[in-house]
Structures are given as structure tokens and as C-alpha cells.
Specification:
It is a single chain. This protein is about 60% helix and about 0% strand. The termini are far apart. By secondary structure, it is an all-alpha fold. The protein is built from 12 helices and no strands. The protein has one domain. The longest helix has about 35 residues. Helix 1 packs parallel to helix 8, helix 4 crosses helix 5 and helix 5 packs antiparallel against helix 11.
């Protein structure tokens, strides 16, 4: 399977899910979709795609280069099917920590915030991908080719994992029984997008929820979710959404009078104030 195959099968599935959800929402008067909000999501997707043409391809070639200096060749050590399984697990484990850091370190939150900028929850919210996310992921994922994970398999598994993440962005699908204990489901991901105090900074996994359960960041959906962030952006302009928190960091940097304050402007927690 190649990256093209993943997109070939994945994109029609995503479009089908959006169509079904829109139809279900309209016929039941649920109001899951707002026109301007959906346009903002499409704008953020376009920006991510345009910048990603350069950033993602450059990073992929970097990983191919680093793969020459790998410690071992994972493909030669274990059966192919197991290579795929371990690659998926490794990607998800690293992503958990990247995602957690993206909610706790200001400059990473500035990159990631646009994904949480919608006050709605539907499949198109998943299109709000961070424009500079691929770049900030490099320090976290750079070990994979160096250890010996094939960059091609890693790229395909990463895309497939991202497509799985789309499924979590909906109010249409409720709880999924025993799957709630293993996988990231719509219920657990709704919690992640909630601004309720009990839901803040919870459920960071993308494919597996076991990391959150293991590292103490899991929260169950126990009350209606208020979607968005503490201070919602109040704009549908993709450029303003993308760079809004960068402006806040620069403003905080200018206001800070100490070296510590200036460092915290970029490396402190998102809620930090000078």
C-alpha cells in the first residue's frame, strides 16, 4: 500500500461521512454545521495543503536521508505485518506526547490552536489542520528513521492514522461500548475538544486511548460538551485564526520586563500571563 492508495480510499470515505452527517443534521434539525464555520475549516485545510506541499515533502526527504544512518533495519527483524502494527503503535505513542506538549507549551499551542478554534463539532472540524504542524513534529518523530523504521511505511501509517482521527470529530456517533477502552472514539475526542473545566487538556491520543489511561490524562464524557477554547477566536478568517496566538505571544514578550518572563512568553503554559 502506498500514500496514494490511502488517499484514494480515504478521501471518498471522508466525503461520504460528511454527506451523511450533513443530511442527518438537516433532516433532524440538529444544526451540526454552520456555513461560515465550515468555510473557515476549508480555508485552514487549503492553507495546510499549500504549505504542506513544501514542508511535508522536505521532511519526508529528510527522513529518507536519516534512514541511511539507522541503528537497525526493522523490516529485516520481524514479519511485515508486525512492522506495520509496531509502526502504528509507535506513531500513536509519539503523537500522544507531541499532542500533549502542544497543549502545554505556548509556541506549540500557537501552531495547534487553529484545530480547536471551532465552536462546532462535525467531520469538517477535522480539516482544521495546523499549517506548521509538520515542522513542529520533526523533533518528536525524527527518532523513527534513526532507529530503523522505514519512512515510506511510517508516512503511509501516519496518513491512515490521520484519516482515523477524522472519525472522532462528530456528535452523530455516540459511545461505542468496549471500544472506548482501547481506541480514541468520537466520545473521547469530543471531550478533547471541550472547553468545560473537567475536559481541559484531556484525551490526547489519536488512534489509541490507552496512552491517556496510562499517563493520567483520560476523561470520560460525563456532561454535555461546550466546544472551543477558553477564549474563543470570534472570527472565521483562516489567516487570523492561524496567527492569533502568535500575536498574543509577541505582545506578552513586549510586556515582560524580565528574562524569565520573555522566555515564558514562548515556552510557558498557554494560560500564562505577564
Amino acid at each position: 500500500m502506498t500514500e496514494f492508495d490511502v488517499y484514494l480510499y480515504g478521501v471518498p470515505i471522508v466525503l461520504f461521512l460528511i454527506t451523511i452527517e450533513v443530511t442527518y443534521s438537516v433532516f433532524n434539525g440538529l444544526g451540526y454545521y454552520k456555513f461560515k464555520d465550515t468555510l473557515a475549516g476549508l480555508g485552514l485545510l487549503f492553507g495546510n495543503f499549500a504549505i504542506g506541499l513544501v514542508s511535508k515533502s522536505s521532511i519526508f526527504f529528510l527522513y529518507l536521508y536519516l534512514y541511511q544512518y539507522k541503528l537497525v533495519t526493522v523490516n529485516d527483524l520481524i514479519p511485515t505485518w508486525l512492522v506495520w502494527v509496531i509502526t502504528f503503535v509507535m506513531i500513536d505513542f509519539i503523537y500522544y506526547w507531541y499532542h500533549r506538549c502542544s497543549h502545554r507549551i505556548r509556541f506549540l499551542w500557537a501552531v495547534h490552536m487553529n484545530h480547536h478554534s471551532s465552536e462546532e463539532m462535525n467531520f469538517t472540524v477535522s480539516l482544521r489542520q495546523a499549517w506548521f504542524g509538520p515542522i513542529t513534529k520533526v523533533p518528536f518523530f525524527i527518532l523513527m528513521p534513526l532507529v530503523g523504521f522505514d519512512p515510506v511505511i511510517t508516512a503511509v501509517a501516519g496518513i491512515a492514522s490521520t484519516l482515523w482521527g477524522v472519525i472522532g470529530h462528530t456528535q452523530w456517533i455516540r459511545r461505542l461500548g468496549i471500544l472506548e477502552y482501547i481506541f480514541v472514539t468520537p466520545s473521547s475526542h469530543r471531550v478533547h475538544h471541550g472547553s468545560n473545566e473537567c475536559y481541559i487538556d484531556r484525551n490526547y491520543g489519536n488512534l489509541l486511548i490507552i496512552w491517556d489511561r496510562l499517563f493520567g490524562t483520560f476523561a470520560e464524557e460525563i456532561e454535555p460538551v461546550k466546544f472551543g477554547i477558553r477564549d474563543n477566536v470570534k472570527t472565521y478568517n483562516p489567516i487570523k485564526i492561524t496567527f492569533m496566538f502568535w500575536g498574543q505571544m509577541i505582545s506578552d514578550f513586549k510586556q515582560s520586563t524580565s528574562t524569565k518572563g520573555k522566555l515564558l512568553s514562548f515556552f510557558g503554559r498557554p494560560e500564562w500571563k505577564p
